[in-house]
Amino acid sequence: DAKTTQPNSMESNEEEPVHLPCNHSTISGTDYIHWYRQLPSQGPEYVIHGLTSNVNNRMASLAIAEDRKSSTLILHRATLRDAAVYYCILRSGAGSYQLTFGKGTKLSVIP
Amino acid sequence: GAVVSQHPSRVICKSGTSVKIECRSLDFQATTMFWYRQFPKQSLMLMATSNEGSKATYEQGVEKDKFLINHASLTLSTLTVTSAHPEDSSFYICSARAGTSNYGYTFGSGTRLTVV
Predict the structure, then answer these.
(1) How does pLDDT run across A2-16, given as a tens digit for each residue?
(2) How far is CA B84 from CA A41, A97, B19, B79, B90, in A?
(3) Residues with Cβ within 8 Å of residue B42, at least 6 apart in sequence
(4) Interface-testing mutation among A4, A97, A105, with chain B (most B C-beta atoms within 10 A)
(5) For A42-68, how does the pLDDT look when each residue is reduced to its tens digit (9 = 90+)?
(6) Cross-chain Cβ contact B103/A98 below 8 Å
């Protein structure tokens, strides 16, 4: 499986934008870029995903580099409820479609 | 949106007994479900992939006779931890996707298993 690299932790002030980076230099042409987040003692929650173009939804935006070797999850206004571990995952467009979780980025939001 | 219901949320069992965890897709048919295990302060580790009507595919190092997976219908997969031991204590999480979807995966809320 193609791997991703994320910072272990990040901090943000409440109500400010947050940019969570992810490197995936070995991404293949059929790999989708998925983002999930996990609050303590809960299952992960889907945030957003994309293939080549930037994506927006009600939770976040996903900016994908032109060469697809990196991406950035953007939370436009961080709230205390956004404090979680954020996982960037490459999901193959073929095969078993499984998600392999890395260590993720622990986001802390400061009031 | 797609909802996956996982039960129980917490269970305590004695060593040597078996525990069954259920994972249901409430508003969609899940041809494939995934089972993960998560130890404290660690990431999720994929245990197995279950496909409706066929045998589960286990990841390397996961004992298929200890972690029995049944995916008998398009809305229900179960994980049975047999002859549980204290080292099986963990957070178990299921996930589901519809067969033709390229959308995000939906996760259950997890089951905290404590073996005493």
Answers:
(1) 689 999 999 999 999
(2) 21, 29, 8, 12, 11
(3) none
(4) A97
(5) 999 999 999 999 999 999 999 999 999
(6) no
